[in-house]
Write a structure and sequence with these properties.
The protein has 166 residues and is α/β, with parallel strands linked by helices. The chain has helices spanning 28-33, 44-51, 60-69, 99-104, 116-130, 149-156, and strands spanning 3-6, 19-23, 72-76, 78-83, 92-96, 110-114, 134-137. The protein has a single domain (3-161), classed as 3-Layer(aba) Sandwich (Uracil-DNA Glycosylase, subunit E), CATH 3.40.470.10.
Length: 166
Amino acid sequence: MKQLVNHSFDACFEPDSEILILGSIPSVKSREEGFYYMHPKNRFWSVLSQVYAEEFPKTLEDKKALLKKYKIALWDVIQSCQINGSSDSSISNVIPNDIASILKETNIQTIYTTGKKAFALYQKYIFPITGIEAIYLPSTSPANAILTEKDLVKQYQIIRTSGNSQ
């Protein structure tokens, strides 16, 4: 059954952030934990740490430090929507986040979206406002079982070429 979900925690960024990675809306587990990609089977943190040849970030502080070190900001396209659990395919009645506001406060040069839904919603709601093309990356969700973690790492390598500090 669909429920109204509001994004319950802030964007994670620093004034010197150069890369923005956008998901659709946090999963049930991420909403419970109050941070991005917190489901234990989501491969985001493992993939990102491998892309940068860093140790897997175990704590929230480690995750934030990894993002800060590589000038990566995290947020989501959606501020609120109707959704069934964590299923992107069930999303409706979208109200987008004000992505333009984070662009004014940072040095973001490149925007990535994780997953087909985030990319489609970015194209529909955000691109007409920012005029910045987003680069699609596949979802790291356990629901995206088609790609192995090795496949994801290979595709996420493009992030290393973004920004000025990599």
